[in-house]
Task: structure prediction
Amino acid sequence: MPREQTIRILAEMVANVIVVEVAVDDQIAAGDTVCLLESMKMEIPVLVEFGGVVAALGVREGDIVQEGDVMVDIA
Result:
């Protein structure tokens, strides 16, 4: 039986979480936006490079993320 792989989407910089576009158990495809960040008055969409199912969320709207924080787990 193959083991399910979990991919973590990490914050690449310090930023404010403006919008979380997904919820746990949502099916996502490559190129989908999972959240929108704001840093230095610029909006930065966080896109996924692969499809899967959202297994867990590590952020909520209004949170401040630090570089390396887990934002989304995808199975």
